[in-house]
Design a protein that fits this description.
By secondary structure, this protein is mainly α. The chain has twelve helices and four strands; from the N terminus they run H-H-H-H-H-H-H-H-H-E-E-E-H-E-H-H.
């Protein structure tokens, strides 16, 4: 239910915050020893067993004000000190990144895959000690035990509750704007291609059935569609592939989606070449009509 969404949201926010601060420390040429101490202090605060124990109890999801308090607490757990303005920018960046990832998932159970990938990223890319690694592993095992058998409908409610918290967040992020992931009013472009959710057929499949219900034939319509439909709709063509088996991830704890293993460098949101082709086609049809109805 919605009261089980808190661990998913808080763990993802904590990992994103660790990623961002580690990047800033590297950019500022902070010595490796000091960076390691900051990261270990944050890991101990984020994955503290007592804090996780209370977090996994059924409870309502935090509002944005409570999430800001959480980010402030994690930042103050280390030796670094952030100004109020820097802390607010960090909070906006972390929440907008989380919102982008939540909007990109193909189906609700992928929330678990995203969370596990975030934990794996902290383990594989950060310079942390054995104590922090043990805390992260405990968190990972608890996630698998708590959510592995969660029904699909419950995942939908968890996803919906997270959307409700993030839906009014439209902060513009320069990194997303430069990559053309975000519009000038703070909203995201969403891809029209990629893998489909499990048990979803590729759009354009036409199947014929007899009156008795058995299938007679089936074929796939061209992904470029009919010319007039393409001209009138003026939309990019959608290129889909069959969905992956998400159940393997639940059973084997293997991250079946690689969409979130890297930060801020996802696939392009739209195909500019496709749009240009449609514009040329529209111009050609327009001049063809002019030629026939208004000959020179």
């Amino acid at each position: 239910m919605a009261n089980r969404a808190l661990p998913i949201m808080v763990i993802n926010i904590s990992c994103e915050m660790i990623y961002v601060l580690e990047e800033r420390l590297v950019a500022q040429d902070v010595p490796a020893e000091k960076r390691a101490k900051v990261l270990n202090d944050m890991c101990k605060a984020a994955f503290d067993p007592e804090a996780l124990e209370s977090m996994f109890q059924p409870q309502p999801l935090y509002e944005q004000g409570q999430l800001l308090t959480l980010v402030t607490h994690l930042a103050s757990a280390s030796i670094i000190r952030l100004s109020e303005n820097s802390l607010r920018k960090l909070f906006d960046l972390v929440l907008m990144t989380l919102k982008y990832q939540m909007m990109l998932i193909k189906c609700s159970p992928e929330l678990l895959a995203v969370t596990l990938n975030h934990l794996d990223g902290v383990v594989t890319t950060m310079n942390i000690n054995e104590s922090s690694l043990a805390l992260i592993e405990q968190c990972r095992q608890r996630l698998l035990k708590h959510f592995a058998a969660t029904p699909y409908g419950t995942w939908d409610r968890i996803r919906h509750s997270i959307y409700c918290v993030l839906q009014d967040k439209h902060t513009r992020v320069s990194l997303f704007l430069q990559a053309k992931f975000q519009t000038k009013d703070g909203r995201f472009f969403l891809p029209r291609s990629g893998p489909l959710p499990p048990f979803v057929s590729i759009p354009g499949t036409v199947t014929f059935h007899r009156q008795e219900g058995d299938t007679t034939k089936s074929y796939q319509v061209s992904q470029y569609g009919v010319m007039w439909q393409l001209i009138l709709s003026y939309k990019c063509t959608c290129m889909f592939v069959s969905g992956y088996n998400l159940q393997l991830h639940m059973l084997m704890a293997d991250s079946t989606t690689e969409l979130y293993t890297s930060n801020y460098n996802q696939v392009r949101m739209f195909d500019v070449a496709c749009i240009n082709l449609q514009l040329l086609l529209l111009c050609f049809i327009f001049f063809l009509i002019l030629f026939f109805f208004f000959p020179i």
